[in-house]
């Protein structure tokens, strides 16, 4: 980690976890003290577990977040959940614009921007995800794609307190593949430039996470790349020992 920004290791449990997963989360809480000196820790379980996890984590070194929200605070939106509801449960952050939601639900940059604004309305931090597909990378469009997503998805008024950007190459998610450190450095440098162009000095303080097949074995190398201020971890965040080992690599 070359930057002065305190790293954030965020776990995205995606559509995984039942009440029986509680023990794994308790193991994370039990082991978090050792790594919390190095990094902030956040776990985003499925919506069904946010309340129970937040209750359990109160006063601990692990914060709890959610994985998506509706742009509105309340209303006739069957099956949807608002940022205010997650705040009520004790969440401090919400992931928006994950590529799985962009792909599975056709979410656009404009909608993701509205969701990020909804997260702010509730007083929480938005973790906005961007990243290119394999085809886009092979076509040399990675920076164009990320630039367009950043421009469209980030609301005006982004600060280090209300925004985290997560760069997740779609082809690296859940595949065991990762970009080279040089490729990660190039994209994170580009993102930093976009953030400072738009948000001036504040853009230098906003955390930029890398996500996509982060594991204990590659975390230290990835976290050492310039402008990588932590990780958004999927599969490896389901296991306390792996999640904490990744944080220890900061
Ligand atoms: O949100 C997390 C990412 O999609 C990364 O998932 P992964 O660590 O399982 O590749």
UniProtKB/TrEMBL annotation:
What general EC class does the enzyme of this chain belong to?
A: isomerase
Signal peptide stretch: none
GO biological process: what's one of them? Answer: glycolytic process
Q: Does the keyword Metal-binding apply?
A: no
Pathway annotation from the record:
Carbohydrate metabolism; erythritol degradation; Carbohydrate degradation; glycolysis; D-glyceraldehyde 3-phosphate from glycerone phosphate: step 1/1; Carbohydrate biosynthesis; gluconeogenesis
Subcellular location(s) of the protein: Cytoplasm
Record family assignment: Belongs to the triosephosphate isomerase family.
Question: What name appears for this protein in its UniProt entry?
Answer: Triosephosphate isomerase
Record organism: Bradyrhizobium uaiense
């Amino acid at each position: 980690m070359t930057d002065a920004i305190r790293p954030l290791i965020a776990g995205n449990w995606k559509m995984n976890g039942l009440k029986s997963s509680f023990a794994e989360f308790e193991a994370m809480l039990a082991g978090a003290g050792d790594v919390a000196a190095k990094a902030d820790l956040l776990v985003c379980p499925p919506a069904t577990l946010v309340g129970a996890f937040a209750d359990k984590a109160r006063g601990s070194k692990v914060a709890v977040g959610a994985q998506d929200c509706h742009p509105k605070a309340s209303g006739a939106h069957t099956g949807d959940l608002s940022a205010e509801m997650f705040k009520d449960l004790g969440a401090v952050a919400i992931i928006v614009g994950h590529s799985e939601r962009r792909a599975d639900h056709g979410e656009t940059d404009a909608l993701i921007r509205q969701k990020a604004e909804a997260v702010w309305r509730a007083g929480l931090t938005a973790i906005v995800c961007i990243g290119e597909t394999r085809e886009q990378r092979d076509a040399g469009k990675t920076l164009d794609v990320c630039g367009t997503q950043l421009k469209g998805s980030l609301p005006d008024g982004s600060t280090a307190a209300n925004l985290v950007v997560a760069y997740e190459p779609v082809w690296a998610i859940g595949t065991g593949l990762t970009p080279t450190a040089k490729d990660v450095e190039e994209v994170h440098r580009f993102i930093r430039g976009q953030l400072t162009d738009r948000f001036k000095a504040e853009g230098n303080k906003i955390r930029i996470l890398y996500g996509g097949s982060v594991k204990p074995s590659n975390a230290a190398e990835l976290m050492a790349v310039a402008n990588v201020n932590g990780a958004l971890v999927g599969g490896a965040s389901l296991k306390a020992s792996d999640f904490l080992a990744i944080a220890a690599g900061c």
